[in-house]
Amino acid sequence: MSLHAQQFFDDILQLPLHQHAVVGDALYAAPQPNSPLRLRIDFAPTITRGEYNGLRLRVIHPEQGEVDTALLRFSEHGTFERRDAARALVAGMDGYAVIRDWHSSGPDWDRADGTGLRAAIEQYVHLWFPPPAVSRPPARPVAQSTPTPGASPRTR
Q: How many C-beta atoms surround the C-beta of residue 88 within 10 A?
């Protein structure tokens, strides 16, 4: 069964990325116009087939390949706190803070909260794809008072 990646990225994460597309189970983005760097976000697998405990972010250069990788775990960003509380799951229990793609009832992220993940991804994107510098007009010099000839200096 598919992970329904498009639905996860659209409904749960709602990332404000410049140009992006979901291909298979991964999101590809060009967060900064005219940059050769690309961002790939996919699901981070556990040792169990079809089970994922977070997202893997990768910065990719077309000639140099993978430049950086980061792993954002669902448990560290509160993604499934409500879902797992409703299921009476706590850390260390099977199924806690993971998604699985073998459920026939559809996506395994009922009651997921993407706020923490979205904030972490936005920080990561800002680090690797900083917004272009805004050109500012040159600073105007501060007007200096000129002493009047014959005036006495002020005392302090």
A: 7
